[in-house]
User: Which sequence fits this backbone?
């Protein structure tokens, strides 16, 4: 029973593979026939083969390059049809579509047409790199935007005063001291009458009158000298 089931599954798969492989073989045959016609100088037959391959869904870059070369052989490498095929072939090459070695297939092609093909291939590679870098940039910006942004610092208008420091022994209610004028009562408030100063306990010990200086005080004021007594003319002037 299991063999019959496996056979039923294998039959569609085999049919699909056999249908794909001949189709690709047909596309490769059309491409080969077109290349032979091109180098044989039969431009009309070459164009017909390449058109049939592209209409059948060929994504081979070589088909577009040789169809453009066929057009360039009659209308010139700068013609719009040739340039369109060169660009399409270069784009398919960058995308990695199925096909043989492009450089090897173009070895026999020289001159202005080959230069136009190489220019198209270079531009396609540059555009592909630019798209890759652009995609990387967009991913980087998206990742940066999704990250948590740091909070913005407060402006001057929004700045708040720092709280009291619990380790500061002088921190208080913001006043300079308890004896500031803010804490002192006003002069016209009740209970603010002035009281007389307390009596000096040592006031009784003060002398009523100043003491007279001692007679023998060498620093005292000198006494008023008495008028000198009259002496004889012959008296001793030294008082002997």
Assistant:
């Amino acid at each position: 029973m299991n063999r019959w089931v496996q056979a039923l599954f294998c039959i569609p798969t085999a049919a699909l593979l056999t249908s794909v492989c001949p189709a690709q073989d047909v596309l490769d045959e059309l491409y080969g026939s077109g290349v032979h016609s091109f180098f044989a100088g039969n431009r009309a037959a070459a164009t017909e083969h390449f058109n049939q391959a592209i209409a059948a869904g060929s994504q081979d870059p070589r088909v577009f390059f040789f169809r453009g070369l066929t057009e360039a052989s009659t209308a010139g490498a700068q013609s719009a049809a040739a340039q369109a095929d060169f660009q399409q072939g270069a784009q398919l090459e960058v995308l990695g579509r199925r096909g043989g070695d492009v450089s090897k297939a173009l070895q026999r092609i020289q001159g202005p047409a080959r230069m136009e093909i190489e220019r198209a291939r270079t531009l396609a590679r540059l555009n592909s790199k630019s798209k890759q870098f652009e995609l990387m940039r967009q991913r980087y910006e998206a990742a940066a935007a999704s990250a948590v942004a740091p909070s913005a610092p407060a402006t001057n208008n929004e700045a708040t005063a720092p709280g009291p420091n619990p380790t500061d022994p002088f921190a208080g209610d913001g006043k300079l001291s308890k004896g500031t004028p803010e804490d002192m009562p006003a002069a016209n408030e009740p209970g603010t009458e002035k009281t007389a100063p307390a009596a000096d306990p040592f006031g009784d010990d003060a002398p009523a009158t100043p003491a007279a200086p001692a007679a023998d005080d060498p620093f005292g004021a000198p006494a008023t000298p008495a008028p000198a007594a009259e002496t004889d003319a012959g008296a001793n002037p030294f008082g002997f």
Observations:
- The chain has a mean pLDDT of 74.
- Residues 26 and 53 are 8 Å apart (CA to CA).
